[in-house]
Amino acid sequence: MTKTALTVNETTLTYPDGAGRLTALNNVNLHVTGGTIAAITGPSGSGKSSLLAVVSTLIRPDSGEVTLETRYGTVDFATLTRRKAAALRRSSIGIVFQHPNLIPALTAVEQLQAMSHLGQHFFTSPIRRRGTRTKAMELLDAVGLADQHSKRPAQLSGGQRQRVNIARALMNDPALLVIDEPTSALDTERGTAIIDLILTVSRTHEAATLLVTHDHTHLHQMNAVYRMVDGTLSLDRANGHAA
């Protein structure tokens, strides 16, 4: 089985800024293998969100190389059209947003089922629908929400909605998990539970995981901790972590 991995090599991203350009990413290098978690810290506006957008194929960088090793082979992001980038996100990239953005009218299990059917014909076979529901229920069970599967977002707590968010991101067995501030809207207890869940699912599903966070409480549990300042990414060796 192909080992999943994300590689970012000498990647630069700039934005228009009046008559000049603002550098969001300055020759960024990063390598994350399947089953490991790299945490990205740094002040607001330092480029963390830009890095997540690049590795999620939402923005094409000015220069450099971004590749993702998946079970289907290695994908070079520079070669992707918009259509192919969208297909890659559906098949191989799980994105956990800071806010769950669940669909109000759908139950927890339906949130996951909808993710599985993205980009496919609406009229799927009964066998496929049953298989999709079974997988969705297994993932909800894995995040401790099997007994809440029929509830809609308004009936779930903040921590439960974030758990649905994580399970939804795993629905298509992603090679890469991109997670943006998953504990920012949670109290300490729920935040700890979510971090523990991310650690478990990343290693169980062998996904390369990139986690942006302002919460330093859990950094000792990560495989590597990086710091982003003014678009420059560096390994934070003060914490004793290696990439």
How would you sum up this structure, described in words?
The chain is of the alpha/beta class. It has a single domain (5-239), classed as 3-Layer(aba) Sandwich (Rossmann fold). 31% of the residues lie in helices and 28% in strands. It has 6 helices and 10 strands. The protein has a 6-stranded mixed β-sheet. A 4-stranded antiparallel β-sheet has the order 2-1-4-5. Strand 9 and strand 10 (232-235) form a beta hairpin. The longest helix has 17 residues, at 126-142. The radius of gyration is 18 Å and the shape is globular. The protein starts with a strand and ends in an 8-residue tail after the last strand.
- Helix and strand sequence: EEEHEEHEHHHEHEEE
- Derived from helix and strand composition plus strand pairing, the structural class reads alpha/beta
Say how many strands there are: 10
How big a fraction of the residues is strand?
Answer: 25-35%
Q: How many helical elements?
A: 6
Count of distinct structural domains: 1
Strand order of the largest sheet: 6-7-8-3-9-10
Could you tell me the CATH topology label: Rossmann fold
Given the C-alpha coordinates, what overall shape results? globular
Distance between the termini: 22 Å
- Main sheet characteristics: 6 strands, mixed
Q: Helix share of residues?
A: 25-40%
